[in-house]
Amino acid sequence: MTRHTAAQSAAPGFFPSVLKPLFLSLALTFFALLCLAIAIAFGPVSVQAADRCILPITAMSVFFAGFLSARGQSTRGFLRGAATGALYGLVAYFVSALSFASFSPGADFFKLLGLEVCIGAVGGVFGINICRRKRNS
To answer: What is the model's pLDDT at position 2?
Structure first.
């Protein structure tokens, strides 16, 4: 007879519940930024106005990822959302590092990573509480 701890029993479902929303949010971000790039190239949108759109697009995507990672779970919404936000920031870092040879993490990177972790955690809290309310109704 084998005894499993809570961490061992939660581990198999943790990463799939975080990775799928992560890739969905990355696809959402890619699509939104592609639309923004098309608006800059062919429309009247200036680059300065577009710079102000990038952070809200990222924040909405991270919130969406945190929300989805906690949806359908009964516990640890905060942790799932924070982990999703952290992974989102790290994937964005690696994509930037591969895309730009002169890219190096600075203070702004760590501020953005902390913001993504916090936004993902808030999304996870919303995701677990909204879905819990629906189950209880």
So the answer is: 52
**pLDDT computed for residue 10 by the predictor:** 47
Which residue type does 126 have?
F
pLDDT at res. 12: 53
Q: Contact, 25 vs 90, CB < 8 A?
A: no
Of 74, 65, 41, give the one whose Cα is nearest residue 121. 65
- CA-nearest of 21, 32, 37, 19 to 58 is 32
Spatial contact of 128 and 71, defined as CB atoms under 8 Å apart: yes
Q: Residue 43 gets which letter from DSSP? A: S
Q: Which two tokens stand for residue 30?
A: 């890619």
